[in-house]
Design goal:
The complex is a heterodimer. By secondary structure, chain A is α+β, with helices and mostly antiparallel strands. Chain A has helices at residues 15-25, 54-66, 98-108, 128-137, and strands at 2-10, 32-37, 43-51, 70-76, 81-92, 111-115, 119-126, 142-148, 152-155. The model of chain B has no long low-confidence stretch (mean pLDDT 94). Classes of the chains: A alpha+beta, B alpha/beta. Chain A binds chain B through residues 9-10, 13-14, 17-18, 21, 25, 55, 58-59, 62-63, 65-66, 68-71, and chain B through 115-116, 119-120, 123-124, 127, 144, 178-181, 302-304, 307-308, 311.
């Protein structure tokens, strides 16, 4: 099962390593982990995506709550939240496939943000599934590099 | 006032009576500032034992134990002691000196990233960056260590922060406000009432007590509740002593090193109250059995322990003392379970008689018999500290607890724990008799502390069960590797009579020919330190 943990933590030195260390020590998976500031400078928000059985999912939440620097943990299924990830992807292109790539970008709502005479960097912001799909669509072109941020998430408005 | 003096002031505010530690340049401002105070300083002989001493002290005094060591190797030596305390949820504040703030990260002499290194063994840690944070950090550290699920907290203080002038007057915070740490104390009333009802309806209820009962000082409440409702009690290793061994409602220790009748009692119950116990592998090796066909209530101050190893029917989070006080208040219907108690007595009588070892060797004392006699000869409120290994297993099974305490390193199983923990226990309550029981392997891991005992006149009685082997592992190799022994034979053991003489301790030796009771009586008669060597059969097994 996949779960998203939105973890509010004290914005202090070493907190990221404490939280990441907890996952490795307890043998929990991290699919992705994103840290950023919140409206309150003293508080950071970590968005952690993890998979595991029911017991593991519950333990992750409890063990996170046990960390002294953790202020609040919210856990939700993907369906309960708005999830977004940013990807930058650098591809090689030529005259034959340029049009195809641009079409794919259009379909997936991705933008070309940098270009040279044989390479381009494309930016896409979407759910992880659609980003996977976009990578799949570009498989026929030669992919040079990929950088992904991992998922950030907020619960949907009607949940609250 | 400089930072180091502020630290001392903080300790005074926390009523710290004694601090165990070792010196070194990075912690010297602190040791210098503490000179003119009433806080007793105990210079131990290796840093690991500073934490063990503080642990023994904490467990007997009920207060937070404090230790302090220097940076680098001093700090890293302390780690095993901290990890030992963490595994048994013992409240400690460990202070480490650190190199100058502006040097951190440049690998200078005696620098170690101690907050990073201990992260998985502490409840929390601080690296003090500003001198003005000292009062708040100490207030928080003592609060965190001694509340909720107890545990060690480490404070790493750079040399320059200890030397820096504190701006303004020293003010120790009266209150604490931490938005991210609010441990649950009171249990949920709905759940409490549910549990009372379950006890009323149960035909075969049982309480299993763990170390959490000692930590919350709830022994009295548990006994009262068990007696009121005639509920039998079993114990994990860490819960030994919650019930006196000879209490009619007590049915021994559970687990693969426990009494078979205790496990049977737990498995056959229809209501199990698991109290302050982690349901760890050595206590419950098949968690499915203790939830099968029964209602399982798990009471613990740490919500993460509930459901970690076993899924309970009724979870109940809170401090055990508070919860059992509420139980006693809400329970207006005392129950009688005498049929169930009679069944358990039958199990015990039958299984106990099957366990009597059937050999006698003149050269060796019989360890089970010896432990029984030793604990019988000890004072009513004595502290028995068992080390790790075969001596620990025999101690758990055959030591008769009257109204004293039983201490051991249960979670981590750290060899050499008993001597420093015994020192800490004795300093926590000098009026109590303290006996450390240890094998000849572990003895050689901590015998340097005999000097500490001599220097500070801490009269701990040490009983060395000597067999020339690392017995517990030898036993494992006997079963698992057909007696192909590797790395377990202790050739070159020192002559213990000369060790005792070297440290100015009274010495006695006991074997199969000795008048054990007579020797014990004399050994325990005075309040001076002593060493008793007990020769036991190297081929002895705890399980057979």
């Amino acid at each position: 099962m996949k779960r998203i943990y939105s973890v509010l933590v004290e914005n202090r030195a070493g907190v990221l390593s404490k939280v990441a260390g907890l996952f490795s020590r307890r043998n929990f998976n991290i699919d992705s982990l994103v840290v950023g500031e919140t409206a309150d400078r003293a508080v950071s928000c970590m968005t952690i995506v993890s998979t595991g059985d029911e017991r593991t999912i519950e333990q992750i939440e409890k063990q996170l709550n046990k960390k002294i620097d953790v202020i609040k943990v919210k856990t939700f299924k993907e369906s309960m939240s708005i999830n977004r990830e940013l990807m930058l992807i650098k591809v090689k292109y030529n005259r034959d496939n340029r049009r195809d790539i641009m079409e794919n970008c259009q379909i997936m709502n991705a933008q070309i943000v940098d270009m040279s005479k044989n390479m381009m960097v494309i930016q896409i912001c979407d759910t992880s599934e659609r980003i996977e799909l976009f990578i799949e669509m570009l498989k026929s072109v030669s992919i040079v590099e990929i950088a992904r941020t991992g998922t950030v998430a907020l619960t949907k408005c009607k949940e609250q | 006032m400089i930072g180091a003096e502020a630290i001392v002031k903080c300790l005074e505010k926390e009523n710290t009576e004694v601090i165990f530690g070792y010196s070194g340049v990075a912690i010297d401002p602190f040791w210098n500032s503490i000179l003119d105070t009433n806080i007793k300083r105990i210079l131990i002989r290796t840093e690991q034992n500073a934490a063990h001493c503080a642990s023994g002290y904490a467990r007997i005094s009920g207060k937070v134990g404090v230790c302090a060591v220097t940076s680098g190797p001093g700090a890293t030596n302390l780690i095993t002691g901290i990890a030992t305390a963490y595994a048994d949820s013992i409240p400690l504040v460990a202070i480490t000196g650190q190199v100058n703030s502006d040097m951190i990260g440049s690998d200078v002499f005696q620098e170690a990233d101690i907050t990073g290194a201990v992260e998985s063994f502490v409840k929390y840690s601080y690296l003090v960056r500003n001198v003005e944070d000292i009062p708040r950090i100490f207030k928080e550290a003592f609060y965190i260590a001694g509340s909720g699920r107890r545990g060690p907290v480490l404070i790493d203080i750079p040399y320059d922060v200890q030397m820096a002038e504190l701006p303004g007057d020293f003010v120790y915070p009266e209150t604490i406000s931490m938005r991210s740490y609010k441990p649950t104390v009171k249990g949920n009333m709905v759940q409490i009432k549910k549990v009372i009802k379950e006890v009323e309806h149960a035909k075969r209820p049982i309480i299993c007590v763990g170390g959490g009962v000692h930590l919350s000082q709830a022994t009295k409440e548990i006994r009262e509740f068990a007696e009121l409702n005639h509920v039998p009690v079993v114990s994990t290793m860490m819960g030994i002593g919650v019930m006196p061994s000879e209490h009619p409602l007590y049915f021994g220790m559970v687990g693969n090193n426990g009494q078979p009748y205790a496990n049977r009692a737990m498995n056959e119950s229809d209501l199990l109250l698991m109290v302050g116990a982690r349901v760890a592998d050595r206590a419950v090796n098949r968690p499915d059995l203790i939830t099968e066909n029964k209602v399982m209530v798990h009471i613990d101050v740490d919500p993460a322990e509930i459901g970690k190893n076993v899924g309970p029917t009724i979870p109940l989070v809170g401090d055990i003392k508070h919860i059992f006080r509420d139980f006693l208040e809400q329970d207006d219907h005392p129950d009688d379970h005498s049929d169930w108690l009679r069944t358990l007595e039958e199990y015990r009588d039958k299984m106990e008689s099957d366990r009597v070892p059937d050999y006698a060797l003149e050269a060796y004392a019989e360890p089970r018999d010896f432990i029984r006699r030793l604990s019988n000869a000890m004072k009513d409120d004595a502290v028995y500290v068992a080390d790790v290994g075969q001596n620990q297993i025999w101690s758990c099974a055959y030591h008769i607890v009257k109204n004293g305490r039983f201490l051991t390193s249960g979670g981590m199983g750290t060899m050499g724990y008993s001597i420093p923990a015994g020192i800490g226990a004795k300093l926590a309550d000098p009026s109590r008799q303290v006996v450390a029981v240890i094998g000849d392997g572990a003895f050689q891991m901590s015998m340097m502390e005999l000097a500490t005992m001599r220097q500070y006149k801490v009269p701990v009685k040490i009983v060395v069960l000597k067999n020339g082997f690392l017995g517990m592992v030898r036993e494992h190799q006997h079963y698992a590797y057909n007696d192909n022994y590797s790395m377990v034979e202790l050739k070159g053991d020192p002559d213990l009579s000369m060790i005792a003489a070297a440290y100015g301790m009274e010495y006695r030796k006991v074997d199969g020919n000795s008048d054990i009771d007579g020797e014990l009586e004399e050994f325990l008669a005075n309040d001076t330190s002593g060493l008793m060597e007990v020769r036991i059969n190297p081929m002895e097994l705890t399980k057979y």
